[in-house]
Fold this sequence. Notes:
The protein is mainly beta. The chain has helices at residues 50-53, 261-266; strands spanning 20-21, 35-37, 42-48, 60-62, 67-71, 85-87, 108-110, 117-118, 134-136, 141-142, 159-161, 197-199, 221-223, 230-231, 247-249, 254-258, 302-306, 309-313, 322-324, 329-332, 346-348, 353-356, 370-372, 377-380, 394-396, 401-405, 425-427.
Amino acid sequence: MKTSRAIYWIRLVTSSPWLNGSIPQSISRLVNLETWSLNDNYLSGRVEFELFLRLRKLDALQLSRNDISLLTNPSTNSTFPKFTKLLLADCDLGEFPEFLRNQDQLELLDLSGNKIHGQVPKWMGNVSTETLWRLYLQDNFLICFDQLPIVFPYVNLKELRLDSNMIQGSVPIPPPSIDFCKGRVPRSLADCTKLEAVSLGTNQIHDIFPSWLGILPKLRILILRCNELYGTIGSSDNNFDFLKLHIIDLSNNDFTGKLPSEHFQNWKAMQIVDAESLKYVKEYQTLAMPSDNMSCTYSFSMTMINKGTETLYERVNDLLIAIDLSNNRFEGEIPDVVGNLKGLHLLNFSSNFLTGPIPFTLANLTRLEALDLSQNKLSGAIPLQLTELTFLSHYNVSYNRLTGPIPHGKQFDTFNISLFSGNPELYGSPLSKKCGNPADSLPPSSSHNSEFSFEFG
Length: 457
């Protein structure tokens, strides 16, 4: 007598893609299947979503980053499984799948990298309002915040990604009856008190700095790069000024005024160095969902400029601390209080209009790995104290107005000449100019104006 053996779980994890071809229709026979994980393979062809709806016990479906076109229009009499994890990134979707209307237990929803265009449908505001932890909608063609009911109800939301869409302001959306978009960061995010990461970069958001986000008690990551944010960054109007913030990227906007000294003073999590728990950036924590009965890793990813190169962080460690305010119009001096942010690994103030000296207090940033102050109007000498930054592997001060000798010793002996170029009165290795010329610093009318003029060699 044969014994039947039910399959309850299938999970295929590979270090590199290896499965190819189409998904067989025969999977519909696996009626007890609970988890289907085939991310990052070479699967191809058109796939009817109804194929998976026959699997009544299916809890987690992961088809991201293959080469499939997922057709999500099941018949009206279909019975839907209750998903907790639904990962459909890069599945050639053109709209929000209608079957989501019936989902009320989702914890992770990933629809990134598709061709979803226009507005978020209002019915999305009723999808898994009590259970959703992570919502990824980046790399689509969403156009408007006014029609984003999604940000109101998700009381347990920890991560929200809407970067690399077309969210903008002052553009009418057809049909004419729909209001104009305002293109602002939605105030309703302040109600999502469990948010840990907000990524809205690479859109066309036209707004001032949303300092009110500082009220979120657990916010660690704030990405607003490559938008149309403008104005000065004032102080927060509450007593919770980003106390847990580890990473902030405001690069490539139109901010003006002085650097936000008051915020630097209040970013307490950046001021802590826990030597006993230091890890490499590549390490990361397991992000387990409430329903997980197995080890499931799904980490937050982001793109930042690191050491002059746009870098994709596929996994962001809790200990990575970074500030990027580059490519704005900040002016004035770099405040000494930056030196209090002792946990910093990456600091980028490049391409602004900063003036004055480089603060010697930056020597307090003993964990700093990359410092970019290039393309400003900084003046004076490079502080000798910075040679004590033994973790520093990238130091760019090119195209400023710095003077005097380049410090020597430790990491400074490894830096490339290009990182110091564009400072006519800077000299010493690795520059070819070995010593300052006193006459070079004099006005043209005063240079060599004495018959006894001489130069030191």
